[in-house]
Amino acid sequence: MDKIIVAIDGPAGTGKSTTAKILAKKLNVMYIDSGAMYRCITYLVLKNKIEVNDTKRIINLTENAKIEFKDESVFLNDEDVTNEIRTIEVTNKVSTVSKIKEVRKILVDKQREYAKENSVIMDGRDIGTVVFPDADFKFFLLCDLKTRAIRRQQDFNDLGQKISLDKIIMEIKKRDDIDTKRAESPLRKAKDAIEVDTTNMIIEEQVDFLFKKITNTEV
Ligand code: DC
Q1: Ligand 1 within 6 A of CB of 19
Q2: The pTM is what?
Q3: Given 15, 33, 99, 105, which residue has the most CB atoms within 10 angstroms?
């Protein structure tokens, strides 16, 4: 297979990461979770007790952050932060940190770097619109709010954080709102992206749908 770039965008909880991860294995290409990169910076901001409006320090942290993806784990400055970046505390702040223009620029450069010599599947909010406008395949995943919240609740459960559905619905709404309305690279479907409503799909169906589009094996 020639080098390919697959962009998967959409709001939180639509199953982007799970789908992308399995798809990458099936296609034997690298998977990059761009949301994890914004989460890493947010984790550092919280860990160092930096105010979210202290952009100078946040930019400095971002410039010096070494983010690596190894197997299923995320390493930040050589520390395994796979679980730490998924907590409700990081989740609640990540959209605010992601609004910072300079942070986005630094992380987008890193994202493009990963794809320089490798085929990649990358998921996020602006992959098909900004990071890789010429991606070979672009998908935009959608799903109804309640289903997304139930999925997120399960993710938090897996981390040992018990959070009510109402609280998660509020968190998702707030995050979608910030991600969609921000000035810099807002969450938007690329004109040429294929829309996939995952509300009534199980993961295998989502993966299968994307796999067939990419490998052109649709019947
Ligand atoms: O996919 P996720 O829920 O892990 O993403 C966390 C946050 O990171 C999301 O609310 C907005 C931000 N993000 C972004 O601004 N651009 C991306 N390409 C990916 C994520």
Answers
A1: no
A2: 0.94
A3: 15
Q: Is 98 in the pocket of ligand 1 (CB under 6 A)?
A: yes
Strand partners, 102: none
> What's domain 5-196's superfamily in CATH?
P-loop containing nucleotide triphosphate hydrolases (3.40.50.300)
| Residue 219 Cα to ligand 1 middle (Å) | 34
Q: Where are the domains of the chain?
A: 5-196
Question: Which residue type occupies 30?
Answer: M
The residue assigned the tokens 């968190």 is 171
46-62 pLDDT per residue, tens: 999 999 999 999 999 99
Of ligand 1's atoms, which has the minimum distance to the CA of residue 111?
Answer: 18
Q: Specify the length of the chain in residues.
A: 219
Atom of ligand 1 nearest to the CA of 182: 15
Task: Select from 6, 14, 21, 38 the residue to mutate for testing ligand 1; criterion: most ligand atoms less than 8 Å from CB.
Answer: 38
DSSP E strand stretches across 60-161: 67-70, 73-76, 79-80, 120-124, 137-142
